[in-house]
Amino acid sequence: MSRPALSMSGVEKSFGPFRALGPVDLDLMANERLGIIGPNGAGKTTLINCITGVLRPDSGSVRFEGADITALPSFRRARLGISRTFQIPHPFRGMSVVENLLVPLDYIHGVEDRHRRAAEVLERVGLSARAAYPSEDLSQLELRKLELARALVGNPKVLIADEAMAGLSEAEIDEVLAILYSLNEQGVAVIMIEHIMHAVMRFSQRVVCFETGQLIASGTAEEVTRNPTVQKVYFGEQAHH
Amino acid sequence: MTQFDLFMNVVATGVLLGSVYAAVALGLAITFGILHIPNIAHPALVIMGGYFVVHANRFGVDPLIAALVGLVPFYLLGMLLYSFYANTFERRGRADVLQSLTLFFGLSLVIEIILVLAYGSELKSLTAPYIGSSLRFGPLTIPSRLLVPAILGPATVGALWLYFRYTNSGTAIRAVAHDERALSIAGLDPAAIKRQAFGLATATAVIGGAALAMIGPIDPFSGRFQIGRVFAIVVLAGMGSIPGTLVVAIGLGIAETLIASYLNPAWSPGVAFAMLLGALALRPQGLFGTVR
Amino acid sequence: MTRGGWTFGLAMLVIVLAGFLAPHVLKNPFYFFAGYVILQYVVIATGWNILGGYAGYINFGAAGFFGAGAYASAFLFNAFGIPLWGSLIAACVIGAGLGLLMGYLTLRIQGVYFAIATLGLVIILETIIHNIPALGGARGMVVYGPPPPGWAAGPPQYMFVLMLLIAVASVSLARWMQLSWVGRGLRAVRASEDAAECSGVPTLRLKLLACAVSGAVLAAAGAPYPFYTSFVEPVTAFSLIIGLNAIAMPLIGGTRSWQGPVIGALLLATTQQIATITISSELNILFVGVVLIAFVALAPNGLIGLVRRKGTEARL
Fold first, then answer.
1. Does residue C163 belong to any structural domain of this protein?
2. B135 touches chain C (CB under 8 A)
3. Neighbours of A237 (CB within 10 A)
4. Please, what's the b/e burial string for B255-280 (b: 16 or more CB within 10 A of its CB; e: otherwise)?
C-alpha cells in the first residue's frame, strides 16, 4: 500500500461551546477514491475546511505528503496540490468561463502553456463551446462542471468534491462521475462528499461516515451500508425525508 | 475645586455626553447591527432631525415636543428609504456592499446640501427654558443643556429594549436578522418587517438630532463627525445589542472628555476612530457580541 | 507586447506630445488651470478604482490620501527644499504606507469595515494636521514653488504637463494591473474570496498590494497640488468633493476596466469645471450626489456597462 497523501490526526474544531468536529484521525492514500457520508451538520464541511485551510483546527495536525500543513494558509495548500469544489458553485462572476480557469493557472505554478491547458480541461468537462461565455450565464450543470474544471486545471494531487452533484439529473450525475473517474485514473486522489448514495457507493473504494463531528464507521461501501449505527443515524434520518 | 472634583466633573460630563451619543447611534444599531444595512447616511439623517426640531423651535415649540412630533414623519421617511433601497438592491439578488455603501454615501451628501440650501451653512441653535441653567449635586456641576438631552439617550434605549423584548413586532425584527425564511414560513413578510425596522431606526434620528442640537449649535455638516462615533459604538457594542450601545456610548463619552480635558480638545474627534480601528484589529466581534 | 499594448503605448505617447505642444497653440492659461484639475481627477479616479473597482473594496477616504500627498510635498519643499520630483516619490511612499496600514487593520474582516475606517482616515489626518504647528495647523502653509523650467510657457502650463505625465503613468499602471495576473486575481477576490484562495490566490497579500498601489496613486495626485495653488490648508486638501468624485467618477464610467474611471473623470470633471463658473459649489455637490445615486440604482456597471449591454441586446 502506498503512503498517505493526506493524513489527519486528532483534528478538532469548535465554534464557541459547540464542537463541530473531532477529534478525527483519517488518512487518504495517494490515488484513493474516498467517500464521506453523514447527515447535515455532521462536520463534513468543517472537515474539508480544515483540510483546505479555510478553518484552522483547534488542535491536531494535518499532513500532506508527510509535511505538516496545519498552519498553512489556503492558497499555499492549493499550490501544493489540494483542490476543492464548493457545495454552492462559486464562479468568478464578471469573468468568462476560460478566464475562470486562468485564475488557478496564474497562481498555481507549473503549467507551461496556460491557454492550451485551459482549453484541454474545458474539452474534458465538455465546456469548450462555452469558453467565451460570461460565467454568470451558465446553467446549473455547467456551473458544476466549471467548478470541477477550475479545481482540476492546476493538476492537483487531491481533489475534494463537496456535493458536486447536488441538484443534477441521473444522466448529469453519470457525466460528472465519468470526469472524476478519469481524473482518478491519472493518479489524483478524490474525496467525494455526497448525499446521493448510489453515486458515492459506486464511486468510492472506501466510505467513511460522520455523525456529530465523529467518524463512526469506515470500510467498503457495502460494509458501511450494513453498519447498524450508520443505518440508524443516517439512513434512518434519510427515510424520514 | 480639587483635582478629584475636577476629575469627577469630567467623568460626569463624559457620561452625559455618552448618553447623547447613544441616542445618535441607536438608529444605526438597528439598521447596521440588526438589518446589516450599512447606512452611513444615518448621521446625516440625525442632523436632518436636528434641523426639524430647530425649525419647529423657531415657532416657539419646545424641542422635546418637536422631537416627539417628528417621530412620525421620520418613521415614514425611513420606510420610504428602505423601499427604495430594497427595490434597488434586494431584488437584484444579494445586496452588493460596495453599491449600498455608495448609495447611502450619496444620500448623506444630498441631505447635507439640501440643508445648506434650505438653512444656510451657519450654526443653528435651540432655545428652551431648561437650556442655560445648571444643577449642582455636591461637587458636581451639571449644565441642564447636557442633562436633558442625556436623559433622551437612556430613555430611548429603554423604550427600544422593551419594544424588542416584549412586543410581537419587536421580536419579529430580531428574528428577521437571524432567519428570514423561518419568518416567511410563519406567514410574516420579511420585507415589511425590515421596512418597519428601518422606519423605527430613522425615527430615532429625530431624538438624536434634538439631543445634539440641545448640547450645542449644529450645522448641516455636523453629522460627519458623528460617523466615526456611531459606527465605533455599534461595532464595539456587538452589532445590534441595544443595551450594549448605551454602555459603549457612555464609555466613549468618558474617553473623549478625559482626552479633551487632560490632553487637548482638538484630539477628541479622532478618539472614536482610533477605538474602532483598534477594536477591529483585536476583537472584530465587538465587546458584547459573540461569534456567530 | 500585444497589439493592444502597442496601440495603447502609442496613444499615450501622442497624448504626452500633444500636452507638451499645447501651450504653443492655446495661449489662454485658464485652459491649463482647468485641464490640471481634470487630469488630477483622472489620476484620483484611476487610483481609487485599483482598489474599489478591481478588488471591490470601497474607499471613502480618497481625500485623506490626496491630502497626505499634498502635505508631504508642501512640507518637504518648505523644510528641506526637496524638488517636486522628489516629493512626488515621497508622497507615493506615504500614500502606499497609509494604504497598507488601513488594509492591514481592516481587510481581514469585511469590506464594510474597510469603508468605515477610510471615512475616519480623513478626520484623523485632518485632526493630526490641525495639531502640528510645523504643518501650519488650521491656517495652512504657503508654498513658493521654484519658477518653471525654461521650456514651459508658465507655471500653469508646467503644472498641466506634470499632471499629464502623472495621469499617463497612473493609467498605464492601472491598465497593466487589470490585464495581468494581478488584475485577474483581484477580480477573483471581488467575485469570491474563498474560491480565489482555494485557487491559489494569496487574497490578503493581493488586497494589501491593491491598497498600497491605490494609496500611492491617490497621494501622487495630491503631491503637485501645493505648487498648483501656492498654498495648502486642511479644509481644501481634505475636501469632501475629492472623496465624492473619487467614487462617483469610476462608478459613472464603469469600475471593471481602466477606461471607466478615465471616461467618468473626463466627463464629470469637465462638467464641474464648466459648472463652477455658472453654479455654486453646493449645487455642484448636489448634482454629483444625485448622479451618483442614479447610477448606483439604475446603471451599476456605469456607462461602459450600459454601452456593452446595448451591444449584446443588439446582437441578440
1. yes
2. no
3. 13
4. bbbbbbbeeeeebbbbbbbbbbbebb
Residues in C closer than 8 angstroms to B99, CB to CB, are: 296, 300
The number of folded domains in chain B is 1
B269, part of any domain = no
Q: What does chain C come to in residues? A: 316
Does B98 contact chain A (CB < 8 Å)? no
Closest-CA residue of chain B to C288: B106
Q: Is the ipTM of this complex over 0.85?
A: yes
Closest chain C residue to the Cα of A99, Cα to Cα: C184
Asked if residues A175 and A5 have their Cβ atoms less than 8 Å apart, the reply is no
Q: Which domains does chain A have, with CATH numbers?
A: 4-90+155-240 (3.40.50.300)
Task: Give a yes or no: residue C307 inside a domain.
Answer: no
Burial grade of B227 (CB within 10 A; 0-12, 13-18, 19 or more): buried
When divided into structural domains, chain C yields a total of 1
Domain span at B217: 3-24+40-222
Report if residue B110 sits inside a domain: yes
Is the residue at C271 inside a domain?
no
Contact C259, C305 (CB under 8 A): no
Q: What is the pTM of this model?
A: 0.84
pLDDT, tens only, C102-148: 888 777 666 677 787 787 788 888 888 888 888 888 788 888 877 78
- Is residue B257 in a domain? no
C182–chain A Cβ distance below 8 A for any pair: no
User: Do the chains contact at C191 and A95, CB–CB below 8 Å?
Assistant: yes
List C-alpha distances in Å: C95 to A24, B185, C47, C174.
Answer: 47, 51, 11, 16
Is B272 contained in some domain? Answer: no
Q: What is the C-alpha radius of gyration for chain C, rounded to an integer number of angstroms?
A: 19
C-alpha cell at B89: 438592491
Q: Which of C229, C209, C217 is nearest to C168 (CA)?
A: C217
Range of the domain at C105: 3-240
Give per-residue pLDDT as tens, A117-162: 999 999 988 888 888 888 888 888 889 999 999 999 988 999 999 9
CA distances from B171 to A45, B5, C82 (A): 32, 44, 63
Count of C-beta atoms within a 10 Å radius of residue C80: 10
